[in-house]
Amino acid sequence: LSSLKKFDEIKKANQAAAKKLVEDQLSSSSEDDDEDAEVKQGKILDKTFTIYTSQTDGDATELERTRQYMNEAFQSGAMTCLICIASVKRNQAVWSCCGCFCIFHLVCIQKWAKDSLFLVSSPLTDDDFGKKDYPWPCPKCRFEYKRSETPSRYYCYCGKVENPTVDPWLVPHSCGQICEREFKPSCGHKCLLLCHPGPCPPCPKMVTTTCHCKKAKPVPRRCSAKEWSCRLPCGRTLLCGQHACENPCHAGDCQPCPRVSKQRCICGRQTAERLCASPQWQCDQVCGKCLPCGNHTCEQVCHAGPCGDCPRSGKRSCPCGKTNFTLPCTEDVPTCGDSCDKVLECGIHKCSQRCHRGPCEICRQEVEKQCRCGKHTKRMPCHKPYLCETKCTKIRDCQKHQCRRKCCSGNCPPCDQVCGRTLGCRNHKCPSGCHRGSCNPCPETVDVKCNCGKTVIKVPCGRERTIRPPKCKQLCSRPPTCHHSTQEKHYCHFGRCPPCRQPCHKTLTCGHLCPVSCHDEALVKQTGLHQSAGPWEQPSEPAFIQTALPCPPCKVPIPVECLGQHEVSPLPCHSAHPYSCKRFCGRLLDCQNHTCMKECHHVTKLNSSADGKKAGPECSQCEEECTKPRPAGCPHRCVLPCHPGDCPLCLQMLKIKCHCKLSVLYIECLKLTCADLKEKELLISCKNQCPKEV
């Protein structure tokens, strides 16, 4: 039970982490959010540069470097602390180097400064500690700061506001006030931008200044470019004193004279063509002039002035320096015969030979020598050094490796091994010598490119695995994967191209073009492929495969007449064939009295001249009785079924009593109904004597 409980807890934690990761990716990859952020970022930059551009009549060409720093401040993951290799967020306390303008977490730079000062001062003795203010370097540019300059509080970029509030409508870590830092190099003016990261732009103020050579009239120019050249010849006298500078108006000292002239050497024996800028030169001949002694000549190479006295004249000492002699310059100084007594190279003993010329011999006296480490002694010649074979076991300053040097004096040299520890970037190893404390940040930068490689941003090594690739404004150049010759225009991206939304326009069997969106790469859900192992297994997400779907049926409206030719309706092309409109047929039957009551149906025309409203062989046959009106007085029905034209004459016999009601007469119905009153009275009469009483 405990194992199952632990398994469920881990499972829930993993699911929550995966869900959060997906949400973060979806939120960060939203194009609408990115577009809103870009618009917002542009407004903030315009607000920051407003005062500066008002001084330059809208010219912002000098702001590119500052704009780059500010874009990195906005871009997610672009600002990276090189000490901890983590992103710098807008709600974290930071510190900015004034040399390279790199931004670090305040806690990280405080720990860095503390560790650097400890490593520098750790070899010192207790007497020396604290007497010198040792500096600590910036992790990136190695710009040195004093111990007193170690940051202890969080300030904005311009240093005016402590703990600046987080404002979404300002540059991160900015106070929103005018920067007012002095320009570098100093010109007396101050920065006009709102508090910003990175270096201040060049001074935009207008000043009146003249050119380098002071010949042109003063003109108004930007303070950052106040030094200018009128391009006229300089005209200043060169150092040679003979010619004038012919270069265009320039800053600083004039260049050496480029002209060539014939000049004598220092001794005056030789003449050569040389640059006018270097008139002093020596030839390679020995002077050779006779010295005042008259016995020797000057051995100096080409020189100026008198040669001087003979170097062998005056008092000279013997080789050991104990006896002085006054001899003519033509005689050599003899040895004095006393002991040499010069201190030998060992610095302890003296030379025991008689006064001699040349260097003394090496010291050959045997002495009791102590080795360099002081652990062993040995009797040996004084000139030979004594090193024992004992290896030093002291730990070097890296606090990791032993010295292992033979006969070490105790002043162990620095560790000569390479550190080799993996840096925080996880890509490179520390190339420095073995050292204590944390390694310096990796100095390398990595190019993070978009998919096409045309948009590149540089990030500190190690951040390329977590930073989002830059947004590229180039159009995607991949070939289309559907049947279209060109794909829809969209920006460079990673992964698969978005589904093609162009009309399919394939020719259907009916001849029309398919009007729906391209369906060559439709995502189709596949279900039922994976059989669960048991009820404990969670149902898996349905798999989607990409496949080409057939074109849907053609829906172009086609006017189609119904079977009975009652109406014409627009029908989709795929179902455009005669249909039943569900009305009664309505065609006049052969009886010419009734119409076909069948549902709308096909009627075969027997001949082309037939009436379109006439019933065909498919229509129903009239089975009704004749319902035409009978002649007045005829009580009989028509003996024929429903028929065209007039009914036949009624030939049935009517049984009628005569006027006197005594006789029954049989008269044809036709005669009776067609007769007038007189004729009817005659027909009804029985011709007998009327029995009625008068």
Tell me about this structure.
GO terms for molecular function: DNA-binding transcription factor activity, RNA polymerase II-specific; RNA polymerase II transcription regulatory region sequence-specific DNA binding; zinc ion binding. InterPro entries: NFX1_fam, Znf_NFX1. It is a single chain. The chain is of the alpha+beta class. Among the domains are: 131 residues, Herpes Virus-1; 32 residues, no CATH class. 13% of the residues lie in helices and 13% in strands. It contains 6 helices and 22 strands. The strands form 11 sheets. Strands 1-2 form a two-stranded antiparallel sheet. It has a two-stranded antiparallel ribbon with strand order 3-4. It is elongated. About 2% of the residues have low confidence.
Descriptive keywords:
two-stranded antiparallel sheet; elongated; Herpes Virus-1; 6 helices; single chain
Sheet with most strands: strand arrangement: 1-2
The structural class is alpha+beta
| CATH homologous superfamily classification of one domain | Zinc/RING finger domain, C3HC4 (zinc finger)
Provide a count of the helices.
6
**What is the rounded distance between the termini?**
133 Å
What would you report as the Rg, rounded to the nearest angstrom? 60 Å
List the helices and strands and how they pair.
Elements: H1 2-28, H2 31-55, H3 64-74, E1 80-81, E2 86-87, E3 94-96, E4 103-105, H4 106-121, E5 136-137, E6 144-145, E7 206-209, E8 219-222, E9 260-264, E10 271-275, E11 315-317, E12 324-326, E13 366-370, E14 377-381, E15 445-449, E16 456-460, E17 522-526, E18 543-547, E19 557-561, E20 568-572, E21 653-657, E22 664-668, H5 669-674, H6 677-684
Family: Belongs to the NFX1 family.
InterPro entries: NFX1_fam, Znf_NFX1
Keywords: Metal-binding, Repeat, Zinc, Zinc-finger
